[in-house]
Structure formats: structure tokens, C-alpha cells
Amino acid sequence: MTMETSVSAERAPTNAAPPRASTADLAPVLERLRAAQRARGTVSYETRVAWLDKLEKMLLRRKDDIARAISQDFGNRSRVETLVAEVVVTVEGIRHTRAHLKEWMTPRKAEVSWLFQPGRAEVIAQPLGVVGIISPWNYPIQLAAAPLADALAAGNGAMLKPSELTPVTSELIRQMIAETFEPDHVTVVTGGPEVGESFSRLPFDHLIFTGSTQVGRLVMRAAAEHLVPVTLELGGKSPALVGRDYALATAATRVVSGKLFNAGQTCIAPDYALVPAERRDEFVAAYQRAVAELYPTVVTNGDYTSIVSERHYARLVAHLDDARAKGARVIEVNPGGETSDRATRKLLPHLVLDATDDMTVMQDELFGPILPVRTYSSIDEAIAYVNDHPRPLALYYFGNDKVETARVIHETTSGGVTVNDVMLHIAQHDMPFGGVGPSGMGAYHGKAGFDALSKLKPVFYQSGINGTGLLRPPFGRMMNVVLKLLLND
Ligand code: NAD
User: Fold this and answer.
1) Rounded to the nearest whole angstrom, what is the distance from the C-alpha of residue 215 to the centroid of ligand 1?
2) How confident is the model at residue 20, as a pLDDT?
């Protein structure tokens, strides 16, 4: 996007009212993209591959700028976390898509009923047009670039609205996209909730929103005005359910690695643990040992990421205060003997024992390094607890018993599952990624993303010689014979 068409509502460091982008400001931008998309006509395989190549190269070439920008926005973001979660995961997704694109674009042969033979039927994948993408701050590159890759693979144009909470990274996204794509093909609009609201009112051909369930509701309502189809990638409380027979040290290490990656600011981070009652203390000790092993220090540790903003830091502290006030036992896990540092927003990992459903730690998605540990006495009770609560984005089960594993997978409903580890289902590009119920709607990644952002158009080719004349009046004897056959008369 060129500077002239950039619409920004980021707060200026003055008392002047910030510029606001209204739907009226943004509508001509979308109209320009739509006109360009129409002029493009059919978008060939070669063109789409060239777009994906450009996106991949952009991410690889600018990886150091990306790591710097995100770290500046967060206060500290582990460089390795950025390279893995923002660059590698996204680029691997692009490579998977490119390797399969030809196959996905090939018209899909469809079966033709004997009544209509020798006609021919197929489903073709056609670009939808222009896709809107609203993304959050927690993985600001991945969650803008991965939906963009799917939109490009499906032959679309795209308009992006990254988060105002990571202004340096959002500005970098704007610049990188402007350098990489034609301004009437892919464009970036920056700004806060007001811009997001105007953005979500635009008549896109599809809108992908990644963010909170609360804002997801507003986005879907706004999109309904123009009947814009939405993919909603939302959040929720993802449980880590530890089976009776599983090695606690292994389970604890894996839960710690998921909980403390990006300091817990991950949509699919294990939110709380469900452990057998008689093994709770053992699990708590194993968790503390695992933290000490993975993060011997926190505040001075470059591998440990800061909480993104003062508001989010205060939100997490308030969760701990609420839990303490309502009788929970809160354990600060502090292997380096440090103090959580508000200035750098490094929050020490915490465990919350005896958490009850009236505490905010068991009500809200935590999105931070706090792990409530709940207990269960039977697997039925654990499954019932999950099913009594809103459907989570992810569920993790640790166990070796095949029957119990199958029960947990089949008797609970969640966006996705990783067995005997955490979060890894998101990195398998041959599977759809998305939530269910309050954790989301629709899916993307790989073929699921390609299909979601394509019009899968059924086409029937009538043959020169055919029997469909029978279906037209005046209906003769032959039609009666056919009807008898069809109706089993
Ligand atoms: P958020 O909902 O506050 O904001 C997301 C985006 O929406 C931002 O760009 C924001 O500017 C914009 N926005 C704000 N108000 C808007 C409005 N009224 N209309 C339209 N857009 C608006 O979310 P966040 O705090 O940036 O991200 C954290 C949340 O995102 C968590 O709940 C997390 O679980 C979820 N998340 C989900 C996934 C997933 O893949 N399912 C991935 C990452 C984060």
C-alpha cells in the first residue's frame, strides 16, 4: 500500500484528536482493490505461485526487522520464539500450500446420477475477490501473513488491519506489504478499534478475524450488514488433561513449554490443568522443576517474553488477587529468586491451586503465565468438566491408555487436539485450524484455507444426447416409468 492510501488512527503523541478512518474513507480503497481484481480475470497457477514466493521471500528477508519490531512492541520478545512462531511456521505453511496448489486448483470431478448421464459435473475453485483480514497482537506477523497466504493461494486480493497494540510491527507490516505487492492487490490499514469497526463494515467477499470472542461477536454483527461470510479465529480456555498413567515430569515439562512460550500469550496455550486428585502435588512439584529447567531466570532472561502492555499486566495481577481473595493458593514459581518486574512487564510464572469456578482465573481466558491446577477423581468427571464449559480452542490430553485417549478425543468438542504434547496440531499444515462455538467459526491453513477463500463452484455440462427431455412437459408414459423406478412404486 502506498503512503497516500494508508489510513492510520494510531494515537499521535499530542493532544490533537487522532485521525479516524471511517467506513467512508476505507470504502474507496476496497473498491479500488475490487476493480483490480475484476480486471485480473482468471488468476493463473503461475501468478498465485509468484505471489506466494514474494510473501515467503519478504518474511525471510525481513526476519531480523520482524524480530526487532516485535521485541520493541512487547518490551522483550524472545528472538527464537519470533523466528519459530512468526517466520518458520508461516513460511512452512506457504511451502505446503505451494506444493499442493496445483492439485487444489484442479477441477474436482463430481459424480453424475444415472438420470443425467452422459452429462459431466465438476467443482471448480474460483477466487472470491477481496478478503479482509483483521489480526491481533500476540503473533502479529503469523496471524496477518498466514491468512494472507491462503487468500493469495485462492487467487484473491486482500486488505489487512493489524493490531494497534503492536504499532511498530503493524507499521513494518504496512511497509513490507507496500514494497512487496501492488497497492491495488494487497493493502494495509492501521489503527485501533474504531478503524477495526469501520473495516468490519466493508463489503468484503470474505472476512477473516483473529482475536477475542467478545470482539468476534461485534465483527460478525458488522459483517452481517453486507452478508459478508466470516471466519472467526477466537480464544477460550484450553485444558491440559493429564491421565492417571502418564509420566508427570514429561507432562509438566510440555505444559510449561506451552504455557510459557510467548509468556502464555498464545490462543492455544494450555489455559488450565486437570490432574488426578491424588497426583496433584506431584504435578505441582514437577511443574516447578520444569520451570527451573527451562527458565532458570525470568526477569533477566532474553528467552522469556514480556507481557505486551501495562493493561494486560494489570489484568493478570488482578486475576491473581481475585484468586487469593477467594481462597485459592497462589504459588509464584521463582527459580532465580527474582521479583516480577512491572517496568519490563516480566511476570513470573504462577500456579493457582484450589481454583473454583467463581474465580476469574477459571472464567476468563488467561493469556499469561498463570496455570490454575484443577483436580478430578475419575476421567468421566474430567470429561464432564470440559463439556460443562464453553467449547475450547484446543484440548491437550496426556495418557498412554488407548481407550481413555479415544474417549477424551471423541467425548469432548474443541477446535483441535494434541495428544501427549501441546499446541503442535497448529503446525500441521495438512489439517484445518479453527475453533468451535465460542472459540471460533470456520477454519483455515492448507487446503481448508484455500477452500474457505475460494468459491467452490459446481458446474454441470449437459451432453448433446441426454434423457432430460423426459423432465419437461407434456409428461408421457416414459416419465411415469421413470417415476415408478425412482419412487420404488
Ligand atoms: P482483540 O479482539 O482485542 O483485537 C483483535 C483485532 O480486532 C485488533 O486488530 C483490533 O484492533 C480489532 N478490533 C478491536 N475492536 C474491534 C471492533 N469493534 N471491530 C473490529 N475490529 C476490532 O484481540 P487481541 O487482544 O488483539 O488478541 C487476543 C485474543 O485473540 C485472545 O482472545 C486470543 O485467544 C485470540 N487469538 C485467537 C487466535 C486463533 O487463531 N484462534 C490466535 C491469536 C489470538
Assistant:
1) 6
2) 57
The answer, yes or no, to whether any atom of ligand 1 lies below 6 A from the CB of 319, is no
Ligand 1 centroid to residue 135 C-alpha, Å: 6
Residues making up the chain, counted from first to last: 489
Residues in the chain, pLDDT under 50: 1-19
Residue nearest to atom 28 of ligand 1 (CA): 211
Query: Which residue lies with its CA nearest to atom 21 of ligand 1?
Result: 196
- Cβ neighbour number for residue 285 with a 10 Å cutoff: 13
Return d(Cα 187, Cα 5) in angstroms, integer. 9
Q: Distance of CA 246 to CAs 251, 254, 275, 398, Å?
A: 7, 12, 10, 6
Residue with cell 506466494: 52
Q: Is 267 in the pocket of ligand 1 (CB under 6 A)?
A: yes
| Closest ligand 1 atom to Cα of 197 | 19
Task: Specify whether the CB–CB gap between 270 and 311 falls below 8 A.
Answer: no
Domains of the chain from N-terminus onward = 3-234+442-455 (3.40.605.10), 239-434 (3.40.309.10)
Residue 26 Cβ contacting ligand 1 at under 6 Å = no
For the annotated catalytic residues, the residue numbers are 233, 267
209, 210, 423, best to mutate for ligand 1 pocket (most atoms within 8 Å of CB): 210
> What's the confidence (pLDDT) of residue 11?
36
The answer, yes or no, to whether any atom of ligand 1 lies below 6 A from the CB of 163, is yes
CB 125, CB 133: distance < 8 Å: no
User: Residue 468: what pLDDT?
Assistant: 84
pLDDT digits (tens, 9 = 90+) for 105-159: 999 999 999 999 999 999 999 999 999 999 999 999 999 999 999 999 999 999 9
Query: Nine-digit cell at 479?
Result: 416419465
How many other C-beta atoms are found inside a 10 Å radius of the C-beta of residue 372? 24
- From the list 359, 353, 414, 422, the residue with the least C-alpha distance to 387 is 414
75 lines ligand 1 (CB under 6 A): no
Give the pLDDT score at 476: 87
Rounded CA gap, 126 and 274, in Å? Answer: 45
Q: Is the CB of 143 under 6 A from ligand 1?
A: yes
Which H or E element spans position 193? helix 193-200
Residue 159, strand partner residues: 132, 187
CB-based contact 190:1 (threshold 8 Å): no
Structure confidence at residue 6 (pLDDT):
40
